[in-house]
Amino acid sequence: MIGQVLLLGPLLFVVTVVAQVSYTIPEEKAKGSLVGNIAHDLGLSTKRLVSGKARIFTRGSDEYVELNRERGVLLVKGRIDREALCKKTTPCALDFQIILENPMEFYTVTVQITDINDNAPTFDKSEMKFKISEAALTGAKFVLERAGDLDVGVNDLKTYELKPTDNFALKVHNNADGNRNIEMVLQKPLDREKQEEMSLVLTAVDGGDPPMSGTMMILITVLDANDNAPVFTQSTYRTTVTENSPKGTVVATVTATDADQGSNSKIKYSITNTLDNVRNIFKVNDETGMISVTGNIDFEESRNYQINILASDEGGFTDSCKVVVEVQDKNDNRPEINIMSKSNVVSEDVKSDTIVTMINIEDKDFGENGKVQCFISDHVPFHLKSSTNNFYSLVTDSELDRERASEYNITVSCSDEGVPSLSSSVTLTLQISDVNDNAPVFERSSYEAYIVENNTPGLSVFTVKARDADWNQNARVSYILEDSSVNGVPVSSYVSVSADSGVIHAVRSFDYEQIKDFQFRVKAQDGGSPPLSSNVTVKILIQDQNDNPPQVLYPVQTGGSVVGEMVPRSADVGYLVSKVVAVDVDSGQNAWLSYKLQKVPDRALFEVGLQNGEIRTIRQVTDKDPVNQKLTVIVEDNGQPSRSATVIVNVAVADSFSEVLSEVPDFKHDKEYNDNLTFYLVLALAVVSFLFITCLVVIISVKIYRWRQSRILYHSGLPVIPYYPPRYSDTMGTGTLPHVQNYEVYRTTDSRKSDFQFGKAGSQNVLFMDPCCTDTIQRKLNEKTALMRECPLSPAASLSPYRFLMLMTTHLSLRGAHMRPT
Ligand SMILES: *[C@@H]1O[C@H](CO)[C@@H](O)[C@H](O)[C@H]1NC(C)=O
Ligand SMILES: *[C@@H]1O[C@H](CO)[C@@H](O)[C@H](O)[C@H]1NC(C)=O
């Protein structure tokens, strides 16, 4: 192109036609649009143009405009973009020349391009982000990015708009350099809690017609500021807790919220109670708001608690609420038993329904847990009476007896009605005091004691013992010998009783042969007031001692005179020569007699029966046997030591009495002896009968006297010295007289006394049943024996008359038996 210009230069120089044409067209005209009628404007004909081969000379503009020589017009050749051609420069024009040849001519054409609003304002970024604290004050400014518009003039950027305008306003500053700064000004405070993110649209509008605009998003994140206080979800919380809940039990959880964010919404909880001890009992977790138990929850102390909770955030904003905690009772209190009054000792004769103890019950628990029932142990003679609520009295139920139970441990148990029930108990010890309501009781209903005769006086015989169930003085027993008489003699002359110990002493020495037994009563009396007593019968049995030697009854030993038995020489072996009869007033073994020959002539002719005392021949009598034989028989009893008696038996071995006489020089004397014997026997019988009658008279007199005395002075205790008749109580019937005979003797004695009023009661076998009469009858019996005792017979004749007679008969019959063979 330049080359062309340089090449054409000389041509222009040669032919110069200077003309200036100017056109104005808007940019962006469509291709082929008319720019200007250049032929007309230059005053050239189209022929000239064609002939002149008119063309456009340009330094680059030819792409935009073309020349139509035939029509003589300039047409738009390509797109004309003002912004591309001129940027922001105004005015914007295309300069080119139209060159003609033949002649060479050129013309300058200026095509001014006017702007059309074909560009909208634009922002560099599509969005802008801001982080603005909600605490930002109104008036705070935020610089916004400017927009740009390629167009110029009126089409250039004209205004901005910001929407929405709730919080921010737009402020545009026109700078001196023509630039404009735009700012967003906070007009209304932000509230993150209301709107955390906001987006605004900034619109830039140009001045074209129609205007065009461009937008940019403004994204605002509202930053939190601690502008909100915490708020509890409820102002009052209600909850319950059972008492004695363990530490750590969660009671409730309070919650407060804070509209702020992050650390601004961090809430701390605390308890603000000050006057009460709530802070010792509960704690609140400062972060979670969980209220738990830290202390002891006692319903009995406080039935509810009010916990004041404060919630505060870090900025110092607070809220408070209260938590009302109702405490639920638990059965944790045992009933308390209080003894209001109590007697420790109660007399055993106290009436039933007497109040012994008053009790008050208290249970601190509530409702059923505090309802109490009391009862006492079974099997005690007491019961509980419930008076007004929670007062009980313990009263006696039935009669008390110290002897059965002197002490009661009464357990009063009280239990409440809680589940599980709690109970407590108290044991009352009640002593029962004694009343003298028990008489002494002897260990046995009757006593029997043995004492060996010939005892030393003062010997302690045995001990009676009575016990008294009462106590102390009421049980202190003294023993008293009751007045009575034994055989007419006061019993106190026989025995004494030690008052303290009950030991019975023999006062005198006893003789079995005189008294075999006796009985009396001992009274035991306690020390109560009035005293109580009982009595017991004591029977003393006297035991025999071998204190009497056997007594030979036959043959009768008459000092010096010869009593003989005759044995005929023809007598067979075993001929009964004689029989030694002896008795022993002792009894039993002591009276069990045995007979032995003590001295025997050389050639033994006789033997004596060991047990029956019979003297018999043991061989045939021979002529060599001397006529007179003197046998010594020893009679021994079986006592320990044994006692004995000897008897000499003269035996004549002869066929006739004359033979005996011839042998015996003084047979005359013997005959005389026989006569004498008969005489003595008769005399003795007479004497005995006399004595007997005398005896009877004396007895009757004494009896009458005694009877009178006893009427007046029965208890005067005059000592009477008794006599004891010999009695025989043999058993075997060997050698001694049989018992039946003894009995008969007494019968005889009794029948003789049949004129006394007790004569008919002669049999000792009679059993007296009537207890009230026992004493009398006993006395009668005693008197009866006394009668017999008081008949003092000589030792020689210390046998009853009957026996005496019988012995005589025996003697005579023996004699007769001896005579008969003669
Ligand atoms: C009562 O209790 C006391 C003391 O515990 C005891 O010594 C006594 O033996 C008891 N009495 C009875 C009758 O159980
Ligand atoms: C002895 O005791 C009996 C009852 O055992 C009684 O009947 C009697 O009267 C008492 N005698 C005296 C003298 O106390």
Automatic annotation (TrEMBL):
This protein's record includes keyword Transmembrane: yes
First-listed, main subcellular location of the protein, grouped into a coarse class: membrane
Cadherin domain ranges (all copies): 19-123, 124-232, 233-337, 338-442, 443-552, 567-667
PROSITE patterns: CADHERIN_1 (PS00232), CADHERIN_2 (PS50268)
GO biological process terms on file: anatomical structure morphogenesis; homophilic cell adhesion via plasma membrane adhesion molecules
Gene3D superfamilies registered for this protein in UniProt: Cadherins
Family matches, as SMART domains: CA (SM00112)
Transmembrane segments: 677-702
Location relative to the cell: Cell membrane
Protein's job: Potential calcium-dependent cell-adhesion protein. May be involved in the establishment and maintenance of specific neuronal connections in the brain.
Designated name of the protein: Cadherin domain-containing protein
Organism from which the protein derives: Cynoglossus semilaevis
Lineage: Eukaryota, Metazoa, Chordata, Craniata, Vertebrata
